[in-house]
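Hello forum,

I keep getting stuck at the same step: I have a sequence, I want structure tokens, and every attempt I make locally crashes halfway through. Rather than fight my setup again tonight, could one of you with a working pipeline run this one for me? It's a single chain of 209 residues.
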Amino acid sequence: MKQSIYIADDHPILIKGLNELLIEKKMNVIGIATDGQSALNFIIKNKPDIAILDVEMPNLTGIEIADECKKNNIITKIILITLHKEIDLYLKAKKLNIYGYLLKEFALEEIETCINSVKNGIPYFSKNVKKYIGFTNESNSILKELTLGERRILKLISQHKTNKEIGHILFTSPRTIEKHRSKIITKLNLGQQTGSLSKWVLKNKHLFN
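Reply #2:
Ran it on my machine without issues. Output:
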């Protein structure tokens, strides 16, 4: 029996394109919606095998729907599609045990591969996601070069703490924290331009959650 697929997106061109493409591929599309609340109601009632959800929709977002499904132990496998390229959004989605994550600009070309993977119980996270949101595989290995104290400072920087606040938390002076920051900058090979460390931490914030 073909797995049932449900689509929810508030962009008429994309939802039409997805629906037509999946029908053309002989997939079992059982419904569509253009807002999040309608999508959640349908999923709760009908429990489709797969739900393709836009991250940003009226009433409820795809992330909120995924959260509700997880809380209520609904076994529908969720694929999220989004225009947004923020790393925090990607990591939040992964924590909700979603099965797929696609950038909207590549959705039509990747959706068939994604669905076939998900059908077999294998999550599919587009390589384009990592490419476009600046998710660097090198970052984890770079952190191994830092001491535990230096990593603690980076985590506090990611929480927007000042040198004074970090010094207070770590029971040391702001000047000592500044020296640590200089060492970290050297180890990360960031250069000495103003704000280079803060920019790096912002880009790699996912490493400090």
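The beta strands are 4-8, 28-33, 50-54, 77-82, 100-103, 124-125. If your local run keeps crashing, start a new thread with the error log.
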